[in-house]
Amino acid sequence: MIKVKYFASLKTMAGKEEDRFDLGRETTVLKLSEAIGKTSPAIGEMVREKKVMVSVNQDVVLPDAVIHDGDEVALLPPFSGGAI
Amino acid sequence: MIKVKYFASLKTMAGKEEDRFDLGRETTVLKLSEAIGKTSPAIGEMVREKKVMVSVNQDVVLPDAVIHDGDEVALLPPFSGGAI
Amino acid sequence: MSTATESRVRIQKEDFSVTDEIEHMKKVSANIGGIVVFLGTGRESSKGETITKLHFEHYPQMAEKKLEELRQKAIKDFGIIDMSIVHRVGEIDIGENIVLIVACGEHRQEAFKACEWAISELKRTTPIWKRETTSKGDVWVSPTP
Amino acid sequence: MSTATESRVRIQKEDFSVTDEIEHMKKVSANIGGIVVFLGTGRESSKGETITKLHFEHYPQMAEKKLEELRQKAIKDFGIIDMSIVHRVGEIDIGENIVLIVACGEHRQEAFKACEWAISELKRTTPIWKRETTSKGDVWVSPTP
Q1: Is residue A82 in some structural domain?
Q2: Mind listing the pLDDT tens digit for each residue in D46-103?
Q3: Could you tell me whether strands D9-12 and D82-88 are parallel, antiparallel, or unpaired per DSSP bridges?
Q4: How far is C135 from chain A (nearest CA, A)?
Q5: How far is B34 from chain D (nearest CA, A)?
Q6: Domain for residue C41, yes or no?
Q7: Radius of gyration of the CA atoms of chain B, in A
Q8: Of B19, B38, C108, C134, which has fewest CB within 10 angstroms of its CB?
Q9: D62 at the B interface (CB within 8 A)?
Q10: Which regions of chain B are under pLDDT 50?
């Protein structure tokens, strides 16, 4: 299973904090975005259009990154910490 | 009378915090430096060699400034406030 | 009112004391001569809208990891003695403290550079998000430079 | 322990509280979003010599006047909301606070610029002198950039 975490505006859009997907032993960000898109089409599209960053096990990855069974993936809208 | 204030290293050199000189209604930094030089030759020389700044009534002045009876003159070694 | 703990980077709900954080850092070295602090606070208005409340959310563990990376890079690249970073999350009122960066150097020049770099790098790399509450409702904020 | 008074520039013997000074400044405006602080502290060594004590002397009235001019120029030239400056005089131990500059801006960029300018301008224009006590005796210090 892959755990997917949603933050900030994506959490609101998804209506949940996290999801789990079974995509075999190895998959890609693109395939994961299609799986997410089945229930949240807008989010799937945002990932493919690179409007959100993707982290795997807490490291930001490129769109062609490989994801393994057991990984923690997070969809990260643009950061806005640090006050002003 | 002109009041002359000594600060920091100059206070040590002069052995006092201030001095008073009667140089008429109007004088110059150069003439004042000569008056100071009678008792503290090294200080008079530092003023003439511009190794210290001179203020009149708390404003830094140029070496050719005119000083009036009643003015407060201060001899200011290079500043070193502000920690590092 | 504060809890300056041993950890040099922290994300916490509670407010912090700037004095306590600085005193804690001073103990690191007797050669600290210049300390530069950035304190970000909640502003009342943003793009003409009056803000009544702020809310910060973070990605736990990843955010702390990024802050620690940032701290170590600041020490190495700018030659400062040490740096501490505290960012609050949860509800924050106008005027309250949000984020604190304390850069300690032997001299002031490197502390200024490191502190300014750190806050701009924090905004770029640390997974923290801000939601503003205005009369029009709640909005997740887009990044500002 | 501190006495954050109404005055935005002060020269005093007593220590100050960084937190109190900042909280005092926050009351100036609800639009302060970025506060940059410079805190100068007493270092243990200077040019290889171990310092045991520092002593600061100032030209009363002229020093305060220069700090106020500096504050007003910082506000005008950098577009910050406000600035406060406190400098201690008299005997100061290693590690103790010497000087504090608090620059408050709507945004951080102008606050960084104003704070860095202010400390370097203070060193250049404010009649304050430092004497260091080392094992070799007491020395009035020449200016450092």
Answers
A1: no
A2: 778 899 999 999 999 999 999 999 999 999 999 999 999 999 999 999 999 999 999 9
A3: parallel
A4: 19
A5: 23
A6: yes
A7: 12
A8: B38
A9: yes
A10: none
> Residues of B near C (CB-CB distance < 8 A)?
83-84
- Summarised one tens digit per residue, pLDDT across range C75-122 is 999 999 999 999 999 999 999 999 999 999 999 999 999 999 999 999
Does the distance separating the beta carbons of C40 and D22 come in below 8 Å?
no
Give me the domain span that covers residue C52.
Answer: 9-141
In chain D, residues with a C-beta closer than 8 Å to the C-beta of C112 are 38, 112, 115-116
Domain span at residue B64 reads 2-76
In A, what residues contact D, Cβ < 8 A? 83-84
Domain harbouring A39, CATH code: 3.10.20.30
Structure tokens at D74: 């910082």
pLDDT above 90 covers a percentage of chain D that reads 83
pLDDT value for B8: 96
CB contact under 8 A, B83 and C33: yes
User: D129 and B5: CB-CB below 8 Å?
Assistant: no
Average pLDDT over all residues of chain C: 92
Mapped to the 3 state alphabet, what secondary structure does chain B carry? CEEEEECHHHHHHHCCCEEEECCCCEEEHHHHHHHHHHHCHHHHHHHHCCCCEEEECCEEECCCCEEECCCEEEEECCCCCCCC
Are B78 and D119 inside 8 Å of each other by CB?
no
CA A61 to chain centre: 11
- Residue C145 banded pLDDT, cuts 50, 70, 90: low
Does the beta carbon of D125 lie under 8 angstroms from any beta carbon of chain B?
Answer: yes
User: Cβ contacts (< 8 Å) between A84 and chain D: which residues?
Assistant: 33-34, 106-108
Classify residue D126: in a domain, yes or no. Answer: yes
- Residue D81 and residue D27 in contact, taking contact as beta carbons nearer than 8 Å: no
What are the residues facing C47 on neighbouring strands? none
Chain B residue numbers with beta carbons less than 8 Å from the beta carbon of C108 are 83-84
